Amino acid sequence: MLTIVMYHYVRDLERSRFPRIKGLSLEAFRGQLDYLQRRHTVVTMEEVMFAVEGSPADLPDDAALLTFDDGFIDHYTNVLPLLDERGWQGSFFVPTRPLLEKKVLDTHKLHFILAAQPNTHAVFDEMLDLIDEYRERYDLLSADEYWERLAQPSRFDPPEIVFIKRMLQTELPEPVRAAICDRLFSRYVTRDEEAFAAELYVSVDQLRIMQRLGMHIGVHGETHSRLDRLGPECRQREIRSSLELLGRIGADTEAWSIAYPFGAHDEALRRQVRSAGAKIGLTTEVARADLWRHDPLQLPRLDTNDVPKQFSSARVPVMVGGAAA
Ligand SMILES: [Zn+2]
């Protein structure tokens, strides 16, 4: 079994400007690294690729792969030194637009809107008011119909937050989502998106340093859109943008890995990335990966919250739908 752990924000939350952001504290991250050191053997992406091409038996039984999504500056300032100290590799999946164009992705705008405004009802009501403005032009459903369809509690969020996230991450038409995220972001977070992006994301130079220090850099698209919902040409553009960035920092563009944005993929997408050189594809399905059984282009991962955060913790089975995974 291969335990692939997924991380996003890893920061000193309490001393940050947005302590309410949903992320992992540095202290918990250190504790989790201690736990992983005790219970697992941390392997590299290259070792996983090798095992997939050859035999899964080449990996140790307790193998773990550490993956970090979205290209946050946290990964350079906080994660890189701690991994380097242990001689471990992390795999970093970086969307290209934030780095190259200094734009904050809508999905991240939303995180900071929710962190900046503790009153979720206010954001909720304001979002619905804004949707009213676009309803006619984009032929949108009523608020009740959307609520009916989307409001279910998730593993980590209550229904109201899930509803806001789904509406603004995937449900509304792209121009409407972008406009509403923009307006809420400039109201609650900042009007200077470019400066915010420069502080939030790694730069190309920092990525190059990470790559030189032995970290693995992988594909996460250009705009962080659900690739399964794009046409083949748009997908191609997203993948090409990522591979160009890998080329610029000296990473391998012949044999590479992808973490699908939002974990979303379908057969056509897998075929497309395979023919472009993808060897490993990571989803957000929650389970340990079994290289004997799983398609290497749809490997499941555990969220950091599924893994103990203390050296002394007992090894816990991951429960998915009531069954240990
Ligand atoms: Zn992502």
Note the main attributes of this structure.
325 residues, alpha/beta, TIM Barrel, eight-stranded parallel β-sheet, two-stranded parallel sheet, globular, disordered C terminus, binds zinc ion
CATH topology name of the largest domain, in short, is TIM Barrel
In DSSP terms, counting alpha (H) and pi (I) runs of 4 or more, how many helices? 13
Overall 3D geometry?
globular
Judging by the overall fold, what is the CATH architecture of the largest domain?
Alpha-Beta Barrel
Hetero groups? zinc ion
Could you say how many structural domains there are in total?
2
Rounded mean pLDDT is 94
Element string (H = helix, E = strand):
EEEHEHEHEHHHHHHHHEHEHEEEE
Measured distance between first and last alpha carbons:
10 Å
Strands, count: 12
- What Rg is obtained from the alpha carbons, in whole angstroms? 20 Å
The CATH C-level class name of the largest domain: Alpha Beta
Q: Can you identify the CATH superfamily of the largest domain?
A: Glycoside hydrolase/deacetylase
| Largest beta-sheet characterization | 8 strands, parallel
Share of residues in strands: 15-25%
Question: Structural class, from helix and strand content?
Answer: alpha/beta
Low-pLDDT runs: 321-325
Percent of residues in helices comes to 40-55%
Give your account of this protein's structure.
The chain is an alpha/beta fold. It has two domains: 3-95 and 200-324, TIM Barrel; 106-188. It is built from 13 helices and twelve strands. The strands form three sheets. Strands 1, 4, 5, 6, 7, 8, 9 and 10 form an eight-stranded parallel sheet that branches. Strands 2-3 form a two-stranded parallel sheet. Helix 3 (73-86) links the parallel strand 5 (63-69) and strand 6 (90-94). The structure holds zinc ion. The site of zinc ion (ZN) has 5 residues, from loops. Zinc ion binds at residues 69-70, 220, 224, 261.
